[in-house]
Design goal:
With 333 residues, this protein is an alpha/beta fold. Helices cover 32% and strands 18% of the residues. It starts with 6 loop residues before the first strand and ends with a helix.
């Protein structure tokens, strides 16, 4: 399956009656990182999702970063984004998408006992402390993204000016290892699954982690716009049910070996690349009901406003609609 554009299109069920049912809505859902973003593998295990192809169709679209989804949401080319906390506030405060609504959680960084994103330097690098980054070249997946915000905060904590004391080079997450190895950058952003790449681990070491910026954060959520909810609420409840079903299947230790094989098949990588960490405590934390940590999101939004990332403070509660997720979760109790 092609990773740049995964398309799952389920046809409406035909009953052979004189009249045909209305076409189910199609949700175009953006994702960035294969496997780590559940949206990429939502239907890899047949039978877990029970509503797709009946009440909704699904099209998964890969993006370079969560912030690039903002434009697609604004133009109507995307229905749902798996958005970083910075992308949410940028969408609302800077891009004017006041009707954006958080509808489910995806993952949290730095929860006690779970994984936190890493910022890595070469093993042979003279960089031993954050202060040693002065004058160095930093690889950034997306300026304004969640990892960029954490890096910004950590640099400031160590008395470096993020806009003057380092030089930024934008690079896709999948290319960070090569750029670090080729000495084109001195610091690389490393997130799952790339950060567990044995090739990267053999040449690099973490200098700091995302949680060093401001502790645990609700890093990635599902977001859509209010008119989409108003038009397709019943279908979105069904999508949320399928999402919760899938996350519970993926994170159940009893399914680990099977899930590892699904990930290997999807990415065309060896199963050994996933066996030790995928959907375990070496992975990001995922709430079993996918309920966002709204208080954590609010802290992040406030921090972004304080640092000038966004033009104004964003009220997390005002832009959260969990009614569909709660209805879906109630079905599964």
């Amino acid at each position: 399956m092609h990773l740049k554009r995964m398309i799952y299109v389920a046809a409406a069920v035909m009953c052979g009656c004189a009249h045909a049912s209305a076409e189910p809505p199609k949700f175009r859902v953006g994702w960035v990182v294969p496997v780590a973003n559940v949206a990429s593998i939502l239907f890899e295990k047949p039978g877990v999702a029970v509503h797709v192809g009946k009440t909704y169709e699904y099209e998964g679209l890969r993006f370079a970063s969560t912030t690039t989804m903002v434009t697609a949401l604004a133009t109507g080319d995307l229905d749902i984004g798996t958005l970083g906390n910075t992308a949410i506030s940028i969408s609302i405060a800077n891009a004017g998408l006041d009707d954006l609504r958080i509808i489910a959680d995806e993952l949290r960084d730095g929860v006690e006992g779970y994984y936190s994103d890493e910022y890595m330097v070469r093993d042979d690098s003279p960089i031993k402390t954050v202060e040693d980054l002065k004058g160095k070249i930093v690889g950034v997946n997306s300026q304004g993204g969640s990892m960029d915000l954490a890096r910004f905060v950590v640099l400031r904590k160590h008395h470096l000016d993020p806009s003057r004391d380092v030089t930024f080079v934008e690079a896709r997450l999948a290319n960070m290892k090569a750029m670090l190895s080729d000495r084109k950058i001195d610091l690389a952003e490393a997130t799952l699954p790339f950060s567990y790449d044995p090739g990267l681990r053999s040449i690099a070491r973490p200098l700091f982690k995302q949680k060093d910026a401001d502790g645990p954060t609700d890093m990635l959520v599902w977001g859509t716009r209010a008119p989409i909810i108003a038009k397709n609420r019943a279908a979105l409840v069904d999508l949320m049910e399928d999402l919760v079903r899938t996350v519970r299947y993926l994170t159940d230790p009893a399914n680990h070996a099977e899930v590892v094989e699904l990930a290997a098949k999807f990415t065309k990588q060896p199963a050994s690349n996933f066996a030790d960490w995928l959907f375990t405590k070496k992975d990001f934390y995922r709430d079993p009901n996918l309920m966002p940590d709204v208080a954590s999101l609010q802290r992040s939004f406030d921090l972004q406003a304080d640092l000038g990332y966004v033009k104004q403070r964003v009220d997390a509660n005002a832009h959260t609609d969990l009614s569909m997720l709660k209805e879906a979760s109630a079905r599964l109790k």
